[in-house]
Task: inverse folding
């Protein structure tokens, strides 16, 4: 797999691996996010023991793997304390550590004891990787965990930024990268599977009898949940824009069923996120639910409803292509948000952002609102996946100014700024001069600034 971005994480890991003290490093994130690839990149040029945990006989299997590096380990006692003590001062990587927890929950307490009594004063590097976000956070990172206070470094890997996926497709235009991003998000496993041009690849992929599109989501869900039907229905509801609790309940046909435990579990596992209007607290009752990554969104929007036709070989990829621009509307909001954040990091916004998110009230919505914690400045942003002419820009600005008046953020001396982020803005530079400093006009070409930086 190609290694793209993650350079800060890579440098941090190398520093930890080169340290002269004991390190307990935890790396976690959803499946396919690139955890294994990251640690293997950091381990280049070093001797290490890498073990992929399963759900049974892990001690025996671990010794067999370790014996390829340290043959004498075969003669140690068959218990974790003896084995890990024998391997002190070495680098030990245990991938999918949650599988060991499934086999025996006591393994966490056992490792805590070994760390405290045997390893803390050595140069051992113990790296634990996990794809089950809920298990890592509850059994390893929680203050109730026996390992609480023992870990020296924790990394939760997120998808790559939109701007970074150009590293996989250097010849693609920004427009084409948006189309790819709508399918892959910034998840390396899917980025590696797509070839360019995207639509030709998707047409061919849908015809393959062994396409990963047919089994991937089932694989992801069954890794986290024993029974998946209700989770599937909820994710499908979200993919089709049912984001309110009542809308989701009606879509899945569960009017008398409490679906909040299912939503809570989907949030814990990283499949779903809950958002509230940016000006309100997290406890707001006006929360909405969204699928966290584009691949799941794409799959439940386009693949899941058409699985039978895909299996029969009669599905036409053009059914996706015809609806794709509409689908990319919400995807482009994520991209616009990323652009705003990157410009803020470079000091190219009229305010320092302390909070960023959607805002809504009844039927009034604003795609992105940025608040400043240091001044009464507020930035309202409209994201449009379309080509805008001058009259479109003025129309959108007038509507955005009207909606801004409904936003309760009554800071004394409130100063409002506005931004339009579009696929393309005709005559952008000329319009910028007309509109002045209080209005920002941005389109895909502005990602060249970030990419070059």
Result:
């Amino acid at each position: 797999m190609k290694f793209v971005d993650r350079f800060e994480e890579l440098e941090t890991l190398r520093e930890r691996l080169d340290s002269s003290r004991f390190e307990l490093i935890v790396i976690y994130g959803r499946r396919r996010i690139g955890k294994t690839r990251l640690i293997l990149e950091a381990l280049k040029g070093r001797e290490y023991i890498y073990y992929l945990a399963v759900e049974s006989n892990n001690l025996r299997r671990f010794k067999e793997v370790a014996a390829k590096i340290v043959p004498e380990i075969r003669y140690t006692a068959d218990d974790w304390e003896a084995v890990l003590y024998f391997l002190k001062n070495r680098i030990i990587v245990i991938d999918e550590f949650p599988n060991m927890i499934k086999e025996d929950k006591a393994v966490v307490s056992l490792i805590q004891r070994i760390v405290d009594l045997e390893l803390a004063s050595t140069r051992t590097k113990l790296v634990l990787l996990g794809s089950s976000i809920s298990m890592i956070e509850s059994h390893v990172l929680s203050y109730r965990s026996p390992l609480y206070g023992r870990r020296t470094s924790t990394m939760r890997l997120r998808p790559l930024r939109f701007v970074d996926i150009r590293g996989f497709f250097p010849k693609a235009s920004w427009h084409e990268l948006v189309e790819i991003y709508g399918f892959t998000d910034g998840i390396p496993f899917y980025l590696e599977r797509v070839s360019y041009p995207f639509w030709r690849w998707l047409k061919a992929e849908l015809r393959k009898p062994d396409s990963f599109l047919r089994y991937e989501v089932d694989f992801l869900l069954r890794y986290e949940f024993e029974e998946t039907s209700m989770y599937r229905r909820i994710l499908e509801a979200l993919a089709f824009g049912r984001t309110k609790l009542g809308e989701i309940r009606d879509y899945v046909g569960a009017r008398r069923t409490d679906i909040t435990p299912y939503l809570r579990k989907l949030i814990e596992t990283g499949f779903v996120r809950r958002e509230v209007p940016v000006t309100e607290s997290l406890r707001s009752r006006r929360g909405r639910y969204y699928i966290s990554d584009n691949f799941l969104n794409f799959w439940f929007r386009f693949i899941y409803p058409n699985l039978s036709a895909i299996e029969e070989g009669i599905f036409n990829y053009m059914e996706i292509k015809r609806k794709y621009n509409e689908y990319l509307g919400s995807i482009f909001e994520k991209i616009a948000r990323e652009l705003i954040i990157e410009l803020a990091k470079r000091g190219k916004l009229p305010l320092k952002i302390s909070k960023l998110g959607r805002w809504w009230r009844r039927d009034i919505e604003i795609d992105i609102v940025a608040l400043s914690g240091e001044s009464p400045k507020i930035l309202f942003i409209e994201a449009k996946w379309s080509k805008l002419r001058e009259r479109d820009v003025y129309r959108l600005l007038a509507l955005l100014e009207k909606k801004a008046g409904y936003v309760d953020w009554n800071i004394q001396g409130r100063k409002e700024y506005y931004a339009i982020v579009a696929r393309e803005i005709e005559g952008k530079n000329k319009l910028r001069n007309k509109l002045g400093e209080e209005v920002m006009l941005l389109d895909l070409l502005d990602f060249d600034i970030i990419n070059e930086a």
In short: The mean pLDDT is 94. The chain is about 45% helix and 15% strand. The first helix runs from residue 7 to 17. The first strand starts at residue 23 and ends at 28.
